[in-house]
Amino acid sequence: MFDHLHCRTVQILMTAVLGLLAGCGTQGKHYALKGRVVAKSADTGQLTVSHDTIPGFMMAMTMPYPVKDDRGFNAVQPGDQITADVVVKGNANYWLEHVIVTDKSGRGSVSATAPRELAPGEKVPDVTLENQDGKTLHIAQFKGKAVLITFIYTRCPLPTFCPLISSEFAAIHKELAKTPEDYKKTHLVSITLDPSYDTPPVLRKYGLAYLQDDARGFEHWDFVSTTSADLPTLATAFGLEYYEQDNQIAHSMSTVLLAADGTVAKSWPGNEWKTSDVLAAVRQAETVKD
Questions:
Q1: H or E element: which one contains 122?
Q2: b/e map of 74-89 (b: 16 or more CB within 10 Å)?
Q3: How far is Cα 256 from Cα 277, in angstroms, rounded to an integer?
Q4: 173-195: average pLDDT
Q5: DSSP H or E run through 222
Q6: SS3 69
């Protein structure tokens, strides 16, 4: 889902996939996948696979897949070559079934251990960030506020991943803005996983799309990048798996809430959390003494 593609390629991919999904029946459609596992997350139940072209569905790329095959998921390790069925059902739902390991010789060439996510009460690394206006930021400067943080990148092509998370953040931002006290005591931060492409002007344009072209929203919601050297430090702290190869990115998803004292209050892996639940947690985190 998270591939560095030229704009025209992204358009073609989205058109093909959305057209496919619109035509899926109640049982879903099945496509044959063949590739190499580059990451495995027990927390999210996902395998990230660098796969060949899937005829009739998707070009060759590296992307994460949910797995509905406990036996196959338990058997596979990063570095394995696998075959599997990609099952696609309406509303952009998809997963892997019938996962079979065909070659184990690559085990050990890829780390099998997922990053350890920070536990409640711990602090995130205070690396240098640059926002959509080119200003230098540090997470520590938001101490005293509840801070909701997630990862995105502006060229993410499929609607149920980065665009979905950004839309949910937009809904949270809009709801918090209804109460001046909530607005004052909270802040949102979206961190790009594509710092070489997502420059401040690109992030500003992206952010405005979710702020209904109201730049005043940047006072409450920053879209930021960090250096390529610091990005792995942040990703590890957030329990985020990401993989880069041949100008592509694949990554898991993580959203973390910091309490007003600057420590982790709660986290949500993946993209299936409810906006109402996160909003309630944000409001509760406002009350933590710093």
A1: none
A2: eebebbbbbebbbbbe
A3: 13
A4: 94
A5: strand 221-225
A6: coil
59, 13 in Cβ contact below 8 A? yes
Count the neighbouring beta carbons within 10 Å of the beta carbon of residue 276.
11
**How far is the CA of 34 from the CAs of 29, 60, 101, in angstroms?**
17, 10, 10
State the pairing for strand pair 254-258/146-152.
Answer: antiparallel
List the alpha helices (DSSP H) in 70-161: 70-75
Sequence-separated (6 or more) residues with CB below 8 Å from residue 76: 37, 40, 47, 82, 99, 101
Q: Output the CA–CA distances (angstroms, integers) from residue 110 to 39, 62, 106, in the order listed.
A: 8, 14, 8
Q: Measured between alpha carbons, how far is 193 from 154 in angstroms, rounded to an integer?
A: 9
Q: β-pairing, 186-192 with 221-225? A: parallel
Q: Give tens-digit pLDDT for 236-271.
A: 888 777 666 555 566 677 899 999 988 999 988 777
Q: Which of 223, 201, 204 shows the shortest CA–CA distance to 215?
A: 204
Distance CA 251, CA 1 (A): 8
Q: What tokens does 200 get?
A: 């401040």
Mean pLDDT for the chain?
82
| Residues 263, 194: Cα–Cα separation, whole Å | 26
For tokens 């996510």, the residue is 117
Burial class (CB in 10 A: 0-12, 13-18, 19+), 260: buried
Calpha distance 234→176 (Å, rounded)? 26
Spatial separation of the C-alpha atoms in residues 56 and 66, rounded to whole Å: 20
Domains of the chain from N-terminus onward: 7-103 (2.40.50.320), 129-285 (3.40.30.10)
> What is the C-alpha separation between 235 and 107, in angstroms, rounded?
23
Least confident of 39-43, 98-102, 221-225, 243-247: 243-247
Total residue count of the chain as it appears in this document: 290
